[in-house]
Amino acid sequence: MYTADDIKQLNEKILHQGQFVDRLRNEIGRVIVGQQYMLDRLLIGLLSNGHILLEGVPGLAKTLTIKSLAQTIKGKFSRIQFTPDLLPADVVGTMIFNQQKHEFVVRKGPIFANFLLADEINRAPAKVQSALLEAMQERQVTIGDSSYVLDEPFLVLATQNPLEQEGTYPLPEAQQDRFLMKVVVTYPSKQEEQLIIRAHMNGMKLPDLNQVVAMQEVMQARDLTRKIYMDEKVEQYILDIVFATRTPEKYRLDKLKPLIAYGGSPRASINLALASKAHAFLNKRGYVIPEDVRSISKDVLRHRIGLTYEAEAENINADQVVDDVLRAIVVP
Question: Domain limits at 161?
Answer without folding.
Answer: 23-197
